[in-house]
Structures are given as structure tokens and as C-alpha cells.
Write a structure and sequence with these properties.
Distance between the termini: 40 Å
Strand content: 5-15%
Bound molecules: fe (ii) ion
Number of strands: 5
Radius of gyration: 23 Å
Number of helices: 13
Length: 476
Amino acid sequence: MSAIDYFEKIPNNVDLANDRTLQRALEHWQPRFLEWWREMGPNDFASADVYLRTAVGVDAQGWAHYGTVKMPDYRWGIFLADPIADRTIGFGDSFGQAVWQQVPGEFRSQFRRLIVTQGDTEPASVEQQHRLGHTCPSLYDLRNLFQINVEEGRHLWAMVYILHAYFGRDGREEAEELLARHSGDVDKPRILGTFNEPIEDWLSFFCFCYFTDRDGKFQLKSLAESSFDPLARTCRFMLTEEAHHMFVGETGLGRIVRRTLEVMKEIGSDDPEAIRRQGAVDLPLLQRYLNFWFSSSLDLFGSEVSSNAATTFANGIKGRPDETTQYQDHVCADSTFEIEVPDGKGGVTKDTSPMRNAMNEVLRDAYIRDCEIGLKRWNMQIKRAGYNFELKLPSNRFRRAIGAWANIPTDLEGHPVSREEHDRRMPGWLPSASDRDYVKSLMQRVVEPGKMAAWIAPPERGINNLSLDYEYVRLD
Ligand SMILES: [Fe+2]
Ligand SMILES: [Fe+2]
């Protein structure tokens, strides 16, 4: 089951050759995808030879196969994790019944909306990173960027397959639309806010991989619990690829911290101006970037209390990450969840919501805990270097645009403050224009094998046991 057919025009492990109609429909979509990639994918690198990982099977041996590929020749395809025998529904009103191989008619539009929203983020991030290759800090990083880009392209394929195979004409139309909306487009933007934010420097890129891709991880984890088995299986396989994206974000930011600490030691100062004169990223600047991307990514989980979240949980459409191992009660019919909401008088009060309605918040909480892991590691580095600076995640109430805290001015700790105070202190909380200019000035392309830009330390090891000075991307 896990063998992938690479002789087909569209590599797949779903026996596409035996469904002519579906195969034709997808083969019709394929050239449009490739056209989109040429136009919106990595700018100017079509002829570069890139050391990439391509899946040749979905099991542990097959999915990480490495070789040198030109990106337009990457074999994008349809790979589902192997089915789990006798899998039953893991949550909601139908808990314990057999999972579905087709979409129940009554849940069709809810499923479609979720799949389209997920699918939309995949090409969006490729578009956001369109020009990043030009300013890579090393060939190693350039390769990682391209690996992520081709895999996000494949994740688009993963969602388009589900749309084509299970949603008929509606699904085919949605698949076209996924190539018609574009990140940051005034007329046809991507669906979710964060995916319209430009990513023009590598500090933003690493923050995006750390915070925004991690939202993707949690969405995929909860869709991997879905009662609609083909969706669950496609998301399970996407998660194996997604792990690398988290890795790039976490190690990228960790390497920036390491380099900054080296510079601080060399010059014997933690003065931001002095650090900038050495071409490194001062920690307060890094903190402001973290504040920006973390708060933006929090909105992706939706409102704290949501009737939509309650229905998708009750109907077995979208579960919680690690539903089986992390929770005792999989039905949540009578339990409640406590949330903090504004009291309308400039303060905070507690509100109790039925658990099912609070599923977005449950997911966001799990996400925040996962985000904290990297910060602990970086803070340890800082402490070991002898500095008492601490990187912190802002409160989940800070700078929210969606949910109970939308447009309520708070400080980084989440204390409500006046609009005047909020606006006055904002330059200390988010990257200022001069911060962005400084970061932009650091973005000079380094493409000599093994060399790193001055603002980032080398990684601990190369890709797939290769040395750091391996030529991961051969530019012509
Ligand atoms: Fe993805
Ligand atoms: Fe990703």
C-alpha cells in the first residue's frame, strides 16, 4: 500500500490509474499548478540544482529520499499515510463508530470550508517567500527554504486531491481558486491574515516557520483525528514533512541567538547599538519580531468561544491534537472550559464556556505550550552565556484581531491599557521602521559553500549527514 507509483504523470499511492475521471481531472490541474509555481514559486532559481528530499514511500524507509533536483522537476504527488485497520471515530457524538470513507452529505460544506482554508495556506506561504532566495545567509539555508517551498507545494496537492476526489464539481472549482488567490493581493488575497503578511527577510522567515508553520502543525494534527479517513490519512503524512519546517524555524532562531551571544562576548557589551555595529541581531530586536509573529499567528485559531468549533467537534470533523493520548473525555458533552475575557470596564474577568465551544482555545493553549519549548532553549543559551535577558512570549491577549480580545489595547503582559498608552508604547513592542531597515540591511546573499552571513551562527550539522560545506544548491 505504501509504495508510490513514480511512473505515473502524478506520483501517487492512491491507485489513481484505476480512476480515469479523477486522474484526468488532476492531470488537467497539474499544468496550472506548474504555471503557478513558475510564476509565484522561488524567484529566479528554476535552473538551480537543489539537494532535496522527495518521498518515494510513506513508511519510515521511503519518505525521506534525497537527491539533486531542479525545483520545477520536483515530483509533486499524492501521498496518504497507510490506513489504520478498523479505525473508529475518536471524538464527538459518533465516538466509537466506524470512520467514513466518504464525506457524509450533511457535513459536506463544513468539511469543504476547513479543507479549502488549510489548502489556501500552503501556496500562500510559497508566495510570501517568493523572493527570499536572493538574500540567503548560506547555501544550507537556501536549500532548507526550497525544501519547505516544494513541500508546501505538495501540501497543496494533498488538499487538492481531497477536493477533486470527494467534492465533485465544487471541489474542482475550489482547486482552481486555490491558484487564483494570492498572498497580499488587494483584490483576491489569501483567506487568513497572517498569510498575507510579506516575508522579505530571513528573520521574519524563521519566525514564520517557528510560529505560523506551527499553527499549521496543530491544524493538521486536529484534522488527522478526523472521522473522514482520507483526510486524516493525508494530514498524517503531511505532518511528517511539516516537522522539518518547525526544525528550520527553531534552529534558525537558535542560531541567531548564538551568533548574537558570540558578538556580545567579543565586544563585552549588550548595548543594541554596539551589537548592530557588528552586524548582529540584538535580542530586544529579536523579541519584537517574536511579538509580531506570535500575536499574528494566535489569531489563526479563531475565536475563543465558537459555535462553529462546537459543531465540527460534535460532528467528528475536527478533533483535538493527539485526541487519543492527551484526553480522557472524547465526547465533551457536559464539560466546561474557563476563559479570560475583557470585563468591558478595562479589566479582565473569567467566563465559563461549554467545552465544545471552547475547542479553538483548547487548541491555541496546546499551541502556546509548544511555542514555549524553543524559548526555554534559547533562554538557556542566554543564561549560560552569563546574561540575564529573557525572551518571552507575549500574552495571548496582546494585539489580537480576532476573538474576545480583538482590538482591545493591552500591554505585552495582556493588561488592558488606554489606547493612548498602547500607541505610545507600541514601538517598543513591535519591529519599528528602523528595526526593519536594519534587518533589511543585513540581508546580503552568501552563497560560498560552508560560509554563513555574519548575523547567524552555522548549524550544528548538515543535511542528511553531509558536511556543512556541501554545495546544497548549485547555482549556474
Ligand atoms: Fe504545509
Ligand atoms: Fe509547513
